[in-house]
Amino acid sequence: MRPLAASALLLPLLAAQLPASNEVRGINLATDGKATTVTVELTGDFDFVTANLHEPERVYFDIPMSQPRIDSRAYYSKVFDNPLVKRVRVAETAPEVTRVVLDLSQPAEVSASKRPEPPQLRILLRAAAEEAGGIPAPQNPPAAPPVPPAPDIRIPTVQIPAAPDNEEGLSYERLILAIWTMVAAVAALAVFTAFLAWETRRLRVASDRALRMITETMRSQAEDLKEALAIAERHAAVSETTAEAAKMAAEATARTSAHLIVGQRAWIVASPPRIPLTELRKLEELASQQASGVLQIPVLVTNRGRNVAYIRLAKANMVILPQNQDLPAEPGYESPTATAIRGRIALPPDTPYQLLAPSLEFPFTEIRTGLARLWLYGFAEYQDSTDEQHRTSFCFVYRHRSPPAIPSQFYIAGPESYNSFT
Prior knowledge:
The two termini are about 125 Å apart. Helices cover about 30% and strands about 35% of the residues. Strand 9 (about 110-115) and strand 10 form a beta hairpin. The chain has helices at about 1-15, 165-265, 275-290, 365-370, and strands spanning about 20-30, 35-40, 50-55, 60-65, 65-70, 75-80, 85-95, 95-105, 110-115, 120-125, 270, 290-295, 300-305, 310-320, 340-345, 350-355, 360-365, 370-385, 390-400, 410. It has three domains: about 1-130 and about 145-160, Immunoglobulin-like (Sandwich); about 170-265; about 270-420, Immunoglobulin-like (Sandwich). The radius of gyration is 65 Å and the shape is rod-shaped. It is α+β, with helices and mostly antiparallel strands. The chain has a five-stranded mixed sheet, with no helix packed on it.
């Protein structure tokens, strides 16, 4: 039993000395009636350790630094119709250690040999002598086929001699036990180191695979993001075009609405006052006498629109300014001559209306001689049927035959701020 234990302890040391590229590729079984040959096919040089086990009967062979690859599988099991071998099993029992187990039908004598070319482990099994049933062997047994001589493979074993039953022998046995304990520790360390190397290689392969997957995923996500950005840019361009078209449509609608509103709204226009002929003759008479008088001028407005206008506020004023003096930049309505009305005066379309009649002391001589000018200005604020606020401003100047071909009447004049409308 001690040689078997020593062989088992040497297995890790053998595994550490061989390369890890060997593979078990096939199992073949042949029988000639009395002997059975099991051939284990490998891909390279190898070593092995064997042992017999009982109850049930079986024998196994451990091949270090190898892996099972029978039919591309890491495990092999097959049942045979053989008088000695019931089943053959192959598996990796430790990292890079392949075990070949022969399950026996009866005790058998087992011998193994190593073939270098091609690499093979040949296992020869014969029935044990006690199972022969006492039948004598024939005098001239049939000659077995010639078998090439096997190389001399020595399985390292250690024989521990029996120590004498004395104190020195006990110390010697303890020394041997200590040595084997150290050997076992070294072997366990070697196995652990091999396991760490295998696990490191496995983790490196797994990390490389994970890194490749992460890289591919990130590349795919980058492509998707680039495509999404391109789609977003196209959508933005379409949205910008749509917004520009909507803006143009809104502007066109606004212009159309403005035209419609202008065409349908109320529109108050002030006309230059027309002084009756009798009044003009009276003015001529006063002017010839170099006198002054009070003149009241009516302001006439007309709704030129298509809706009713509602006048809310109106003001008018008359001023006399020297010939070389212009009107102020903005009209004023604080003088005593200014008149105003407030309320809600409805003015239908195309209907004239006398809005105001401001009065002023009229210096006829100064106006006739061209030393002064008479100005009449004012405004009217009103609403149309949509309650929109509007304003019309007007300004007129009186000309007394200047030049002589022009009749003496009021004419539109004055700055732009005096003549405007909304």
